[in-house]
Amino acid sequence: MENFWQTASAQLELELTPQQYSAWIKPLVALDYEDGKLRIAAPNRFKLDWVKSQFANRITALACQYWEAPVEVQFVLDPRLNAKKPDAVRPAPANQVEPGQLRPSAPAEPQQNLNIANSPKREQSRINPDLTFDSFVTGKANQLARAAAIQVANNPGVSYNPLFFYGGVGLGKTHLIHAIGNQVMADQPGARIRYIHAEQYVRDVVTAYQRKGFDDFKHYYHSLDMLLIDDIQFFGGKSRTQEEFFYAFEALIAAKKQIIITSDTYPKEITGMDDRLISRFDSGLTVAIEPPELEMRVAILLKKAQSEGVTLSDDVAFFVAKHLRSNVRELEGALRKILAYSRFHGKDITIDIVKEALKDLLSVQNRQISVENIQKTVADFFNIKVADMYSKRRPANIARPRQIAMYLAKELTQKSLPEIGELFGGRDHTTVLHAVRKIAGDRQKNPECNHELHVLEQTLKG
Ligand SMILES: Nc1ncnc2c1ncn2[C@@H]1O[C@H](COP(=O)(O)OP(=O)(O)OP(=O)(O)O)[C@@H](O)[C@H]1O
């Protein structure tokens, strides 16, 4: 049954847009299959109705194809939502009231849906047992972050507090903070640890506000031993949440309780964030997680395939890793597609099969990036006019973005230095060379510059 669902959802991923897939199919859980009846659970009534009306036929067809027999598919509400209700009404000890428990109908946090083992301690902590240091592949891009994570997991509250990870989407920030949580939970089974996505924290603040439940809210968060908070950029512009978080932060740090934060950008770049919070975020250790380099992408593919019981040849792993460069989540998605394709067609995984399975993805990756596109993207990013890319003006707020655009033109297109110079208002090739060297040097020395360039590269590669 699990095998069926893995294969079917990978097939649906091929057929749907990424948004449709992650909104409707990803949250579903295949519960059981017996006597030609398959039960699939959706996390809430809204999703249930939509999936029934839009995808029931396709899922049924896939099931019939898989079992080579008629299958009746029943869509039901996720039984864990019902199972949670008694907990929600049971009076919890005063020091363990979770804001989420006050609101039984609250949607589960997106990242928490499926993988949480059922022990009450895990339920409370929301730590995903699958995301460990063991399953985390290390390379140049994340070795510093991993070393800091291990240090903090070994000495929570003592070494770096807060520990702040930043990096682009799908690079392993969430994985790493769960890994810390898992290790501390194993070392100190009594510790009160809580993982929370920043969006959920915002919702909890709103609920506490509506129910005048701030005392419980404060008590809960201020008495934790470790708080792991993911994607804190979601606090941007939400002043009440920031205020509450500020108090929690101060209380926990003063009591030497560990706080670990992730964000898609470094503290100073988070928009709409109170300065006093920004300075506190930066007061422990701030570490970047970079996009994985080629060897690491290969290692990730080999490891993930192995955990699916499949051996990928090095050729295939290199081929995929060379073409998909942006993040680990994308690699995982590609691998799922390849496995599904080869299972459905009963064919071994060769480079030709990979090309077929990843047709859409590869065509997007190979899309030509033009110098004009780079100029426009960089100008938008730095809020200057595109015309300034060709102009002779030289104030620093224009000169630097222009140099960055020249650097990206050299990195991402096949154009020669003189051709690039021409496209930047008829500049000499030595000017372009100077810009390329300058930005490459800054990138080496300055993690913030490096991060900025990654964001631009990811935007340009779509
Ligand atoms: N170094 C790694 N080794 C193994 N798996 C990884 C690694 N980095 C990321 N992953 C996997 O890639 C997927 C995306 O990672 P994760 O959710 O941690 O990214 P993120 O940086 O938190 O992204 P976002 O900002 O979008 O939340 C997860 O399934 C995670 O397990």
Automatic annotation (TrEMBL):
Annotated CDD domains: AAA, Bac_DnaA_C
InterPro entries, A to Z: AAA+_ATPase, Chromosome_initiator_DnaA, Chromosome_initiator_DnaA-like, Chromosome_initiator_DnaA_CS, DnaA_C, DnaA_dom, DnaA_N_dom, DnaA_N_sf
Main location (coarse class): cytoplasm
Residues reported in the UniProt entry to bind ATP: 170, 172-174
Stretches for region Domain I, interacts with DnaA modulators: 1-89
Residue segments, region Domain IV, binds dsDNA: 343-462
Keyword 4Fe-4S set for record: no
Transmembrane segments: none
Places the protein is found: Cytoplasm
Subunit structure: Oligomerizes as a right-handed, spiral filament on DNA at oriC.
Protein name in the entry: Chromosomal replication initiator protein DnaA
UniProt source species: Massilia jejuensis
